[in-house]
Specification:
InterPro entries: Beta_helix (IPR039448), PbH1 (IPR006626), Pectin_lyas_fold (IPR012334), Pectin_lyase_fold/virulence (IPR011050), SCF-Subunits/Alg-Epimerases (IPR051550)
CATH architecture: 3 Solenoid
Number of domains: 1
Distance between the termini: 41 Å
Keywords: Repeat, Signal
Structural class: mainly beta
Pfam family, one: Beta_helix
Strand content: 25-35%
Shape: globular
Protein name: Right-handed parallel beta-helix repeat-containing protein
CATH topology: Pectate Lyase C-like
């Protein structure tokens, strides 16, 4: 876990065919969800149990007293959940919680969590949930990662920890995840991980108010949303902006992600960080004004690592891991005045069983841990399978516009990157020297082509000491960005 510094794909055949609802927009950009929830459930539906505010424990007591599958309707006003840290609602399978306009569930900085335990198919609609004191890496809503939950037209804001946890088959739609202390969403489930997660039409903004990367350096524990070992995620039509760190961060053995028609804007660090993970489609998104805080911090201390708006760290396509694609395909996106573009990075010292693997205890999805040890790791197939490889990445049909004056930078900005480090660690590593640098640059099928560029772009290639201009990037030995335009025009071949 944590920030790792850091194809055989030509015309990649993608098997994804899903409809993507258009992200609602105004003339100035995405239409806000936060503060603009529809006024639903003004009256209790037939058969619903009405809950009055102002009675400590009322919602939890009523839930305990009714059978599974009950619909509860919360009247307008502030609802509270008891006087100690363990005041909480424990839903039963199929319970539904509907909020009348103005219904707020408030933890008052006392209760740790709002909705807990492992009930299935719980629904929350029209609620505002705030003021809960979740601990680090824990969540307020769906605290124990129950499966099949639906969170819709709901605001989860101003909580400590994660506003929302996730379980398998969870759908989060048209909701506001705002100003939570650690994450807006923490998608982690012990055991086999989460499958079939959907995020659609949400606003995810201002999260990590607790500045966790400063409080716990290297923790890798912040972001608008964090995903761990999620297999199958559709992330469509969301507005991810103003988060204090990464916008979306997929960390360790995630697979089969589709991100389309999202707007990523003004996140302090990477808009998308895809780390030690597999098989991604990133298409039709807009990236605007991201990574400025992180980029300026790196530049101010003279750190020449190519920070990125989209950062692929030890992540690539892998046909042996079942998904709707066997590549990382990045196409049809617009990048405008971010600190930088896309970085493809592979840490030569990070592999299964290495002390440099910050996702300690985890191995790749194509190797057995027992094979990734001295005496076997240097032999095939372990040599290839014990590394999380940045491979089979195709970047095509995108628009990259960069004006240093608007971004406010003078150096170490406006860069693309394809690189690794010189392997040195541990002593038994078979990846010492420049083996991984050569592999990621020339042998692993990573390819830019058919893109449109405007502005003074530079390209970091092989290692941090090599920066070339567009002509050098296109020439041998790199031969990148065939059929691309560097004058702001359309790509032509």
């Amino acid at each position: 876990m944590g920030r790792s510094r850091a194809v055989l794909v030509g015309a990649c055949s993608l098997l994804i065919a899903v409809s993507s609802p258009a992200l609602a927009r105004t003339a100035d950009g995405p239409a806000p969800v936060c503060g603009h929830q529809p006024a639903e459930y003004e009256e209790a539906p037939p058969g619903a149990v009405a809950i009055d505010p102002g009675v400590d424990g009322d919602l939890s007591v009523k839930t305990a007293a009714h059978p599974p599958g009950t619909t509860f309707w919360l009247r307008p006003g502030t609802h509270t959940l008891g006087t100690d840290e363990f005041g909480q609602v424990v839903p039963k399978d199929g319970d539904v919680y509907l909020g009348a306009p103005g219904a707020v569930v408030d933890g008052r900085g006392v209760n740790r969590a709002a909705f807990t335990q492992r009930a299935r198919d719980v629904q929350l609609r029209g609620l505002t949930i705030r003021g809960f004191a979740a601990l680090q890496d824990q969540g307020v809503v769906n605290h124990d990662s129950g499966d099949g939950w639906l969170i819709e037209n709901t605001t989860i804001e101003d909580n400590a920890g994660a506003g929302l946890m996730a379980g398998a088959g969870q759908v989060v739609r048209h909701s506001c995840l705002r100003n939570n202390g650690q994450y807006g969403l923490n998608a982690y489930q012990p055991g086999d991980g989460i499958t079939g997660l959907v995020l659609e039409g949400n606003e995810i903004t201002g999260n990590n108010t607790g500045d966790w990367e400063t409080r716990v350096p290297g923790c890798g524990c912040s972001g608008g949303a964090k995903f761990w070992a999620v297999d199958g995620a559709d992330i469509r039509g969301n507005w991810v902006h103003g988060n204090h760190g990464a916008g979306l961060w997929a960390d360790t053995n995630n697979n089969d992600f589709l991100l389309e028609d999202n707007v990523f804007e003004a996140n302090d660090a990477e808009a998308l960080f895809y780390e030690t993970s597999y098989n991604l489609v990133l298409r039709g998104n807009t990236f605007r004004g991201n990574t400025l805080v992180q980029g300026r911090a790196f530049a101010s201390r003279g750190d020449n690592f190519p920070v990125a708006t989209v950062y692929l760290s030890e992540s690539g396509g892998e046909p042996r891991v079942p998904a709707r694609t066997s590549a990382i395909d990045i196409s049809g996106n617009t990048f405008e005045d971010n600190w930088a573009g896309i970085t493809l990075w592979e840490n030569a010292d990070r592999f299964c069983n290495s002390p440099a693997n910050t996702s300690s205890g985890y191995c790749t999805k194509v190797a057995a841990k027992s094979s990734c040890v001295a005496g076997t790791i240097e032999k095939p197939p372990a040599y290839g399978d014990c590394r999380w490889k940045t491979q089979q990445v195709e970047i095509h049909g995108n628009t990259f516009r960069f004006d240093p004056g608007r971004v406010g930078c003078t150096s170490l900005c406006g860069r693309m990157a394809l690189l690794s480090n010189f392997g040195t660690f541990p002593d038994w590593s078979p990846y010492k020297g420049n083996a991984v640098q050569e592999a990621i640059t020339f042998q692993q099928g990573n390819r830019w082509h058919g893109n449109s560029y405007a502005g003074p772009w530079a390209f970091v290639v092989h290692d941090t000491s090599r920066t070339v201009d567009a002509a050098g990037w296109r020439a041998e030995p790199y031969s990148q960005d065939e059929c691309s335009s560097f004058d702001g025009g359309a790509a032509v071949c």
